[in-house]
Structure prediction request, 286 residues.
Amino acid sequence: MDEIFLLPADSDNQPIDREIVIQYFRSTQDTVRAKSILTKNAISLVIKGNKTMHFAEKTVQANDKEIHFLSAGNCIASIEFQEQEEFKSILIFFDEHLLADFFAQQKKSLPTANKTKQPYISLKKDNFIRNYISSLELVLQHGKKISEQMSVLKFGELMQYLLEYYPGTLLSFQYRQQHTFDDVTIRKTVEANITSNLTVEELAFLCNVSASTFKRRFRDIYNTSPINWFIEERMKMARKLLTNKRIKPADVYHQLGYENHSSFSRIFRKYYGMSPKEYAEANMAV
Prediction:
């Protein structure tokens, strides 16, 4: 996890000095987890499989039923292959000014803009979008390169379609300007990742600060260490989940970000003096 990838620069098969870069990605490894810095905005077109992307303030679950617009910035992406044989996707990277130029060209036909701006948006795939992705895959899957002219054309094609059929969602996308992360943003990043099982170093990376700075500012905000705060918050969530009759005690650990039931049970017993199952049974009887 020490290596940090600059995307699209550290990916292969396409020139990266263009305003629009289209790249094909395929993996069959047991697990993929990496720190990345998106130097351009990106459109994620998952063809097969699922991928989790952690950003500051939000975790994005990318799958093959949706497309995602991602703002430039620090990201931790992970792909688990326990329930999938391979992962395939296409990423369209684009410079920020292209988005502004596109909207400027369409100014007369733009609907009233959505006042709520988001650095990450998702849209369900429809038949047009599926066929659009297939047309890109036909070119990219055999290692062929897309020309600069074709990249501009395909980017414009997708943007024009989304603007006409999903204008509200598209207009809500806003590039998140890089800035010094204040305490409010650190708080949002931390509280959005309570169950994400990220390390302190990874959280610091998402906040664009060093691990030592993150720990110091964390203690200033919460008056405790990150590890103690996360355990306490997860235990509070565990208590609520264990009183839900529709959730089995043995399934709670996974929802809270623990890798196995034994470690969750050990911590829970330390906090509450009984096992998760015993706690659930005692509270169901009340």
